[in-house]
Amino acid sequence: MAELKSDLSLWRQGLGVVPDEVWLRTDLRTLVLADNALTEVSERIGNLRNLRMLDLGHNKLRELPSGIGNLEGLSDFLYLHDNRLTQLPESLSRLQRLRYLNISENAFELFPEVVTTMRSLVELRVTDNRLTELPPSISRLTSLRELHLRNNKLATLPDSVCALRELRQIDLRGNPVIGLPEGLLTLPGLEKLDLRWVTTLEPPPWFSKLEAQGCIVYL
After folding, report:
1. Which domain holds residue 173?
2. pLDDT tens digits, residue range 119-134?
3. Which CATH number belongs to the domain containing residue 211 in this structure?
4. Which of 21, 55, 176, 206 could form a disulfide with 79 if both were Cys (CB 3.0 to 4.6 A apart)?
5. Mind spelling out the 3-state secondary structure of 75-139?
6. How far apart are CA 105 and CA 149, in angstroms?
7. What is the pTM of this model?
């Protein structure tokens, strides 16, 4: 095992199964288990309560153990991208310090509602899934600055997105967007609205106002 202080990286080691000794490393602050063809993760992951960053990306996970919600110290990153997830455990609602979440490249058809309880999120990546809508409760993510939704099936955004006063970037590339809430004009810090590869949208007149306020609209 490649080991440095309280960091452990087992990236691309062909593990298949996480070695039991990993779950004994309660000192860990960073754990990388990416790209190991993992199909499951033990509930014992909940013992690693000092973790600040966890990378489970590029595996074959269809579900996560509820014990992951015990990692209440997770604050930096949680990478779950490129797996086979269709839902997330409700226990993730306890991750109130987490600032970055990546659940891209999975099989979500419904936006996992539990994500909207992670109120410290600054960046959320949900690209390359099968989402057709976002829930109104997205408005809870009042610290969110970046919302990445590329390559889903979204026709619009809920009006509640306009309550995200810290929002700086919205990425909707490759979605079948037909309309967006004019309330986006009220977001004081919006810097980028990315609509490239969108062929279904007739740009509304208020886009010019958005650009006049300093937001770059990519079409």
Report:
1. 2-218
2. 999 999 999 999 999 9
3. 3.80.10.10
4. 55
5. CCEEECCCCCCCCCCHHHHHCCCCCEEECCCCCCCCCCHHHHHCCCCCEEECCCCCCCCCCHHHH
6. 11
7. 0.96
